[in-house]
Write a structure and sequence with these properties.
This protein has 457 residues and is an alpha/beta fold. It has two domains: 198 residues, 3-Layer(aba) Sandwich (Rossmann fold), CATH 3.40.50; 227 residues, CoaB-like (Rossmann fold), CATH 3.40.50.10300. Helix content is 30%, strand content 21%.
């Protein structure tokens, strides 16, 4: 990719819906990586395939990566009767066709809508980016050059010119698909400062309920804490917080779907807990501390009974110093003498570092207004990963279906993720966790540090 993006990498397409049209070129296999790069910039990606493209790249692969059903049939209707490629045309912020074959360039230049990619381009008012790819001398042929000129000069499409190099036929010439970073840059430039066209999910094609995931946590034991703690004032009243447990429950469900054994320690929750998890119910910080101690054990170097601890619970920072044994009488005022609760996350990290193999520890930080304190928390707690979010931001607070988080790693730059469903946040987090665990195990076999630096960034 281009080297002049600075801190904007990973954020330039936040909230954007990008239609990725793939045509029948051998370079179609590169669409998988292009999709990943667009998502890394914060975009949601809707893939459209021409019939020939389906012979080069499997729709299932692109559906699994994008979380959206691939559109490949120009005659197909959605379940609600809407025309799929028209919904795409009306909702996307940009269309990018990569690779674009000579056949497609000719059809598009003449408005021949025989496939969903051409039809969507004809139907949309969004900007269109085209990245041609073809073999032999095809790109230099006058017919191809005329079609490219018409798309660029007549239709206003942005053309990402192909590069020179070895071609699939064994020849060398101009026709290689442009470097993917150039294509991403062209997508960003085409959108510019335009407002998001269709921010609501109801205006876009429906997502797949759950992305297919490989069982990359098969045989792993993952411990998850979820929900809020309640610190009793008297037998009736308590100090609590607004946590619903939705994020922790989503992580537990996602881990189960990827083959893990899941121990879920649940405080106060407002959502169903996933079937299949080994559930321990707790109420107070002291009860959570006891449950963690039972998993971590005490004293000396010992074998770990789990692979990772994900502390998604919202633990109260304070509790009453004295618990009233009877209900306090109502009066004109009440003063509570509060004391800090134990730092369970830091304590778990200290104990876990004595285990073998060393478990991966993931913490959460709910902040308001700024995430500056989260960086300090990462360092102070000693966790491998810290998931931070601003709970005052709309759609990112307690009890919401969505979350916008920043992932902080012990050895690596911060990653700002776009607004996602909590299940999507869970899957992205588990992607990182699975990599850390694989790196830990590989390092242990070679006698290196159990969580190598390069696997933690």
């Amino acid at each position: 990719m281009s080297q002049d993006r600075g801190d904007r990498v990973g954020h330039r397409l936040d909230g954007r819906l990008v239609a990725l049209g793939v045509t029948g070129s051998i370079a179609a296999y590169k669409s998988v990586e292009l999709l990943r790069l667009l998502e890394a910039e914060g975009a949601e990606v809707q893939v459209l395939l021409t019939p020939t493209a389906t012979r080069f790249v499997a729709p299932l692969t692109l559906e699994a990566l994008s979380g959206r059903p691939v559109e490949s049939d120009v005659m197909a209707l959605l379940a609600d009767g809407r025309i799929g490629h028209i919904v795409v045309a009306d909702s996307v912020d940009v269309m990018v066709v990569a690779p674009a074959t000579a056949q497609w360039l000719g059809a598009m230049a003449n408005g021949l809508a025989a496939d969903v990619v051409t039809a969507a381009c004809l139907a949309t008012s969004a900007p269109v980016v085209v990245a041609p790819a073809m073999d032999g001398e095809m790109y230099g042929h006058p017919a191809t050059r005329a079609n490219v000129a018409r798309l660029r000069d007549g239709f206003g499409y942005a053309i990402v010119e192909p590069e020179s190099g070895p071609l699939a036929s064994g020849q060398t010439g101009v026709g290689r698909l442009a470097e993917l970073g150039r294509i991403v840059d062209a997508v960003v430039a085409a959108i510019g400062s335009r407002p998001v066209r269709a921010p609501g999910p109801e205006l876009r094609l429906p997502r797949i309920a759950e992305r297919p995931r490989e069982a990359d946590l098969d045989g792993r034991h993952i411990v998850v804490t979820a929900g809020g703690t309640r610190e009793a004032i008297d037998p009736v009243r308590f100090i609590g917080n607004r946590s619903s447990g939705r994020m922790g429950a989503a992580i537990a469900a996602a881990a189960l779907d990827r083959g893990a054994r899941v121990s879920l320690i649940a405080g106060s929750v407002d959502v169903p807990l996933p079937a299949g998890a080994e559930i321990t119910r707790i109420e107070s910080t002291a009860e959570l501390e006891a449950a963690l101690a039972g998993l971590l054990g005490t004293g000396g170097s010992r074998r770990a009974g789990f692979d990772a601890l994900i502390m998604a619970a919202a633990v109260a920072d304070f509790r009453p110093r004295h618990l009233a044994t009877t209900k306090l009488s109502r009066g004109s005022a009440m003063s509570l003498d509060l004391e800090p609760t134990p730092d369970l996350l830091a304590g778990a990290v200290a104990t876990a570092r004595e285990l073998r193999p060393v478990p991966v520890i993931v913490g959460f930080a709910a902040e308001t207004g700024s995430l500056a304190r989260a960086v300090e928390k990462l360092q102070r707690k000693g966790v491998d990963l810290l998931v931070a979010n601003d709970v005052s931001e709309p759609g990112s607070g307690f009890g919401t279906e969505t979350n916008r988080v920043t992932l902080l790693a012990a050895d690596g730059p911060a990653e700002g993720w776009p607004l996602l469903t909590k299940r999507e946040v869970a899957d992205r987090l588990l992607d990182r966790l699975a990599g850390l665990l694989d790196g830990r195990d590989a390092a242990a076999q070679t006698g290196a540090s159990e969580v190598p630096q390069e696997s933690r960034s």
